[in-house]
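R.M. (postdoc): so does anyone remember the format we settled on? I'll just put the structure tokens first.
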């Protein structure tokens, strides 16, 4: 398995989502659409169709945050990759008043490191029908990101200070409508962004980055990733939002298992009708807005709902689908990428 890593400068802004609802990650369906749009800039004709065919055969997860911990003295660094937390019951076997407080703390956590996710999935108890794991005992950054002591056991960093850093911040910026004919000012409105911040602990600098997992990687992806850095992702790119400094493709060093009694997705899924019965636990997300095709088109897309990352499935063979959306007035096809990127667990 490969990972595409995108490095971020300090104080970089991102607007990812529909309307004014911004996300702190980039869903796989929007990522696929961005890659298709960029491919249309770089290729044409049969070359473009060839790249689209390869993209359809590849598996991509959603794009999540990670952190690189850099020792400013010796310049050694280590990357920690965060994944979506499973959407299912989690905690001790017996519910106590103390655990109720813990459950509230666990509920706020959205993302877990590779090591923490592995521990969680290995602790699923079928009899109790829950993950028997106390997520709150890990190192928690900003109430949202959980990593284990194993993640930093080879780094001499103060874990208490590490928990106090803030790597993301939601901010709003004001804008004003201007009448181009009269030069007069109109209504004031707000644009919401996620701001990515570097953190500092003693001699360490913590630099957030974004990444996603790839199955069936092909070398033309490098050109698309370089163009992502220049063009950016998400909205308000004309205002400098969504840009990356650089990208690289690395080996993950392991493969997520595709064996198990249950499965968790780390991509958006648009299931086939026959696959709906296999859903054990899920959250839904809305998809609407306007078509972007090398620029704004003003053409509104149909309304769809997709299954969010972290949902749990009870059977193997959940593939999802790439939905071809009928859009009169366009000369090319529009897709909703809903292929499953699954992690197996249990038995």
């Amino acid at each position: 398995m490969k990972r595409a890593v995108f490095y971020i400068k300090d104080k970089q802004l991102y607007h990812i989502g529909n309307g004014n609802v911004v996300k702190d990650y980039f869903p796989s369906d929007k990522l696929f659409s961005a890659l298709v749009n960029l491919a249309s800039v770089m290729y044409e004709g049969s070359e473009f169709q060839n790249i689209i065919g390869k993209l359809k055969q590849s598996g991509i997860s959603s794009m999540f945050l990670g952190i690189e911990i850099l020792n400013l003295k010796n310049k050694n660094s280590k990357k920690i990759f965060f994944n979506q937390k499973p959407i299912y019951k989690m905690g001790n076997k017996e519910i106590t008043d103390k655990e109720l407080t813990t459950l509230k703390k666990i509920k706020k956590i959205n993302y877990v490191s590779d090591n923490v996710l592995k521990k969680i999935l290995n602790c699923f108890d079928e009899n109790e029908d829950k993950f028997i794991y106390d997520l709150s005992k890990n190192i928690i950054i900003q109430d949202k990101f959980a990593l284990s002591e194993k993640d930093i056991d080879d780094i001499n960093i103060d874990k208490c200070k590490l928990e106090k850093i803030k790597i993301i911040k939601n901010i709003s910026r004001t804008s004003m409508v201007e009448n181009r004919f009269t030069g007069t000012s109109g209504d004031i409105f707000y644009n919401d962004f996620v701001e990515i911040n570097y953190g500092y602990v003693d001699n360490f600098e913590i630099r957030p980055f974004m990444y996603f997992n790839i199955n069936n990687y092909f070398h033309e992806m490098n050109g698309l990733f370089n163009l992502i850095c220049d063009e950016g992702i998400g909205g308000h790119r004309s205002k400098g939002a969504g840009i990356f400094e650089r990208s690289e493709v690395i080996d993950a060093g392991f493969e997520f298992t595709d064996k198990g009694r249950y499965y968790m997705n780390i991509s958006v899924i648009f299931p086939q009708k026959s696959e709906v019965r296999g859903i054990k636990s899920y959250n839904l997300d809305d998809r609407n807005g306007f078509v972007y095709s090398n620029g704004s088109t003003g053409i509104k897309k149909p309304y769809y709902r997709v299954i969010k990352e972290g949902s749990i499935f009870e059977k193997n063979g959940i593939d999802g689908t790439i939905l071809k959306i009928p859009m009169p007035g366009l000369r090319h096809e529009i897709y909703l990428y809903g292929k499953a990127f699954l992690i197996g667990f249990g038995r």
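R.M.: ...and that's the designed sequence above, right after the tokens. Also worth knowing: The two ends are 23 Å apart (CA to CA). The first strand starts at residue 2 and ends at 7.
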